[in-house]
Amino acid sequence: TSMPYKKAKKAFKRAYLLKLLQQHLGNISTAASIAGIDRRSIHRLVGSLKLPATKIRDASQPAYVRQTAVQNIVEDVLEHYKPALNQSKYKALSTHSEALSQDIAKELPEAHLSLKEAEKAFEHAYFSQLLAQGTTIAQAARKACLRYEVVHRKLKVLGIKPQNV
Fold first, then answer.
1. Are the CB atoms for 140 and 130 separated by under 8 Å?
2. How far apart are CA 125 and CA 149, in angstroms?
3. Long-range contacts made by residues 53-59, C-beta under 8 angstroms, separation at least 24?
4. What digits encode the pLDDT tens for the residues 94-120?
5. Does this model's pTM top 0.70?
6. Cα–Cα distances in Å, from 9 out to 122, 143, 151?
């Protein structure tokens, strides 16, 4: 809420698309399918948001990054419980942490939000946080650089009840 709504929404869209493209190695078709929009729309958004499309493919991380993240969590947990575990059991668990993390990573569901769902979640978080700062709708509208009516309508659509009416 430190920036106006339109600027914050543009920054959100940019971050959403960048992360989506990085997760799928720059594959526009896959990103479009997950986002629930046309492939040409992704190309237009990449251009309008000035995303470095050629660099995305080069800098993207393959799927094993997820498994590495899980492995780091498993190793941190093991390290935390090291004093409580038998030394031989700790050693056995730590040597199998890679295989264990691969199994866990395979079982974890990949939850992807469409662009519309992600935008709705962003708007809900933005306006909830804006109102949680103790502002009225009029003050929130000024801070977000939007008209009072627009903020009021968005709050109604998002199901957010203002505390200060």
1. yes
2. 19
3. 53/21, 53/26, 56/18, 56/21, 56/22, 56/26, 57/25, 57/26, 59/22
4. 888 888 887 777 776 666 788 999 999
5. no
6. 8, 14, 14
